[in-house]
User: Which sequence fits this backbone?
């Protein structure tokens, strides 16, 4: 190879390297300009350089797609009609490009559920294609599929497809059970935060700004999940009524009577919908207990014993169920059932103990706080030493009622009414003024708690 040829090759390599270096520098410069504008939400100035980076340097940084999504979402929120649909498609395209170039930095649950929601909201595609996106999100990355609205849309689409004869009714029930469990887990996580911070506040500790923010955000998110759960129950509607359940399960019984998972699901749904008077319920429970004596079968035997007014036998089965149960929300249900029996029998201390056990398993079970509040309020005359301390019992009842509304937004209105009623019966400002020096009141008998005297 002569010197001239070698020189030509060397020159080409230098020029090539120089061009690559220049392109990289240009990408960095353009991206820097785009990102700085996008950071302060100056999307009008960010758009041209941002799309230039996206087109010419698609692998430069995932920030291109993050800021690009914010820019498009900002436009999307302000748009209407055909322009809104076009922007929805632009966002979908952007998501797909991000996944193409940065799969390791793209959460499938976020991507597919976001695409599905945009398609649903803007009537892009059909029910099946919309559902397919949500189904990918849920089956491939369930942990990152947790936005309340999207969970509702996913279930709603499944029910609609069932209405068109494209999904089985049993599939509707299976998805309902799975999504409800996911929502209840989120509710319990948030309610636990709220309960902990509320108790801290009631004890007189001033919350930090971070704790106040956490308390507020947990309340907002809990409300969202509560609304979605109510919406899912409404969407399920008559599909889960006894008139549909009984013929469905009767038809499946012979083929599935040895299937423990199916027996648990069928008996559980019939129990929750109060279809327990039908002979099928007894057949389900009998088969379940024979196939696999468990917490579930013991619980249902307790239900049947209660129907026969055999309370002692029922309590024996419920306690067995609680001991065997491993799922927190179901264990809470059993403890609540025992608490209800104890309350009915007038054993308030024992009832409270079981309501607390239920709350320990499922912190969002606000009804337990309402039950405790009711028992405390009904004991005002018997658990106070004098007029002031007797009326002070209502402060404690008020506190419990307010907790109910905080951990379970669906009870907020009811809890607020009870709390207001208890507050009206508690010592007035004049009573507090006439009892100077009283910072707290110790309440005796079965209650055994101390309540703070509100500051004037």
Assistant:
């Amino acid at each position: 190879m002569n010197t001239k040829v070698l020189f030509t090759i060397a020159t080409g390599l230098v020029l090539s390297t120089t061009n690559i270096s220049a392109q990289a520098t240009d990408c960095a410069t353009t991206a820097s300009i785009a990102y700085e504008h996008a950071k302060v939400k100056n999307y009008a100035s960010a758009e041209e350089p941002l799309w230039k980076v996206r087109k010419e340097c698609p692998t430069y940084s995932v920030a291109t797609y993050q800021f690009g999504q914010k820019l498009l979402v900002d436009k999307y929120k302000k748009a209407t009609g055909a322009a809104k649909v076009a922007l929805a498609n632009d966002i979908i395209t952007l998501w797909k490009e991000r996944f193409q170039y940065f799969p390791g930095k793209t959460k499938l649950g976020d991507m597919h559920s976001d695409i599905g929601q945009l398609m649903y909201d803007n009537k892009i595609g059909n029910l099946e294609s919309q559902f397919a996106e949500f189904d990918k999100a849920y089956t491939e990355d369930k942990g990152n599929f947790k936005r309340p609205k999207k969970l509702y849309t996913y279930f709603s689409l499944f029910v609609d497809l069932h209405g068109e004869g494209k999904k089985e009714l049993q599939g509707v029930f299976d998805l309902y059970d799975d999504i409800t469990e996911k929502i209840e887990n989120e509710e319990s996580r948030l309610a636990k935060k709220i309960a902990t911070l509320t108790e801290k506040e009631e004890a007189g500790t001033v919350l930090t700004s971070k704790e106040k923010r956490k308390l507020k955000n947990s309340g907002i998110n809990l409300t969202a999940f509560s609304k979605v759960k109510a919406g899912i129950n409404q969407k399920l509607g008559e599909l889960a009524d006894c008139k549909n359940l009984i013929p469905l399960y009767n038809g499946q019984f012979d083929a599935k009577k040895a299937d423990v998972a199916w027996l648990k699901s069928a008996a559980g749904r019939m129990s929750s919908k109060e279809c327990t008077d039908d002979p099928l319920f007894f057949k389900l429970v009998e088969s379940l207990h024979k196939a696999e004596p468990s917490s579930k079968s013991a619980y249902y035997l307790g239900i049947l014993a209660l129907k026969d007014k055999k309370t002692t036998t029922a309590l024996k089965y419920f306690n067995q169920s609680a001991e065997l149960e491993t799922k927190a929300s179901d264990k809470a249900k059993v403890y609540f059932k025992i608490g209800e029996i104890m309350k009915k029998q007038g054993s308030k201390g024992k009832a409270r103990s079981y309501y607390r056990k239920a709350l320990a398993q499922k912190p969002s079970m606000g009804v337990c706080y309402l039950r405790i509040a009711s028992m405390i309020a009904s004991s005002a005359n018997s658990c106070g030493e004098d007029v002031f301390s007797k009326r002070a019992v209502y402060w404690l009842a008020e506190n419990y009622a307010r907790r109910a509304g905080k951990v379970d937004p669906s009870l907020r209105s009811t809890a607020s009414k009870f709390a207001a009623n208890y507050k009206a019966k508690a010592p007035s400002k004049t009573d507090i003024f006439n009892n100077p020096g009283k910072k707290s009141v110790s309440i005796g008998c079965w209650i055994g708690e101390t309540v703070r005297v509100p500051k004037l």
